[in-house]
Amino acid sequence: MKQLIFDYTPYCTRVALVENGExxxxxxxxxxxxxxxxxxxxxxxxxxxNGMKAAxxxxxxxxxxxxxxxxxxxxxxxxxxxxxxKSAKLSAGDVIMCQVVKDQFGQKxxxxxxxxxxxxxxxxxxxxxxxxxxxxxxxNDKRREYLEQLVKSICxxxxxxxIRSAADKASDAEIIxxxxxxxxxxxxxxxxFSHAPEKSVVFEEATLFERALRDTIHxxxxxxxxxxxxIADKLSGYVxxxxxxxxxxxxxxxxxxxxxxxxxxxxxxxxxxxxxxYIVIDKTEACTVIDVNTGKFVGTSDLEDxxxxxxxxxxxxxxxxxxxxxxxxxxIIDFIDMARExxxxxxxxxxxxALKNDRLKTTTxxxxxxxxxxxxxxxxxxxxxxxxxxPCKQCGGGFVISDAQLAFMLRxxxxxxxxxxxxxxxxxxxxxxxxxxxxxxxxLKRHVDTAWADKKIYLYADEEISRDRxxxxxxxxxxxxxxxxxxxxxxx
Length: 492
Description:
Elements: E1 2-8, E2 12-19, E3 22-30, E4 40-49, E5 54-58, E6 65-68, E7 95-102, E8 111-113, E9 118-119, E10 123-126, E11 132-134, H1 141-154, E12 160-163, H2 172-195, E13 200-203, H3 208-216, E14 223-226, H4 229-236, E15 243-246, H5 253-256, H6 260-264, E16 270-272, E17 278-283, E18 288-293, H7 303-325, E19 329-334, H8 341-354, E20 362-367, E21 372-377, H9 385-388, E22 389-391, E23 399-401, H10 403-421, E24 425-430, H11 432-441, H12 445-449, E25 456-461, E26 471-473, E27 484-486
Helix pairs in contact: 7-8, 10-11
């Protein structure tokens, strides 16, 4: 059974795709900072570096975006005023239409292109390309050919479409409707671009709600569960078959469905497999390194067999972690050394097969003589650890659980404490940074407005408390009342 679970708070929205109780995908989008991948801008070229064949474009953000000059793909007379010809040379001062294909990462600005695409449920519109493509996940040759001919028959002259895997089970009417809606969006983009100011956005990609539905609802999702009625109303227009349920329980929706513990594990470097072996995931500036270890798994026969079985189990675990954590870019996997060439080849092939179901494009390069497997995974949105981890203030080089993630963990622990004790008053001590995070984020607001409306929950900061620990009690601490904030009375 597949479930799509939405956890809404005023601070952020978390979305989990769960299959038979196991977390398959996890996404987070904060209210104040939305991702910009897919956004279309009216940008102004600030600088062109011919030696790097790159242009830096001001799109109104804190850092200029950049694009390779070869990404100026359009060769269409009616669009030359907004997007340059492929052969055209960009110059400082040019105003162009461009789209974000990679979010800002670290000190790097957003990656841009003028090869515009607009995604729908079944199709992706290519308004400036005559290419018609079919998802490689649609494997039936007759169905592929039929879909290609159908889309060609409705495709506007001079434009193209990519047929998404969801179209495999769609009716002709649904595909035609999707194409018409996408073309309508593109016409509005052109109209808005003509009168938009420079360095401004002319089209915003869908929200996390809409993207989650668009990308997963056609994957046989059986049930959509939300924690707010207004979200159910908002999503109902996008859903045809799946059931939408509003969860009204006191526990957090992720905790109720057994997902919170799995989410918390995404903060850990070490991931233990069912057989006792484990992998260690380390992020560097250039790449992500994954190390495979036998751990408690000792096998049943010889050493080579034990090593091979450990590596084989690690393949599935790694593919799962890449998808859940949205690890992208260059990935180096240090498998345990294997003596037999057939075992080495089998691991590489197993890695390729395990990554086939990944929504993002992955390429497995192969295994080096040292047993290192190199692969790349398309980098678009920020990895999940950008939300769940933050740089350590003490050492400056490592990472610790973020204040935002700790606030969610506090929420779950506090809810369980109140439910277990059926208490009307609770005193919660936390590290000062987490105190500020809880008050400013509104993560507890849903409980404050509903289940805790008649309770008194006091929050106080204490530097003696470890930043990842919480002091929750029914009795008041020995501090002055002025140092405590009653969070259930803040909005009265």
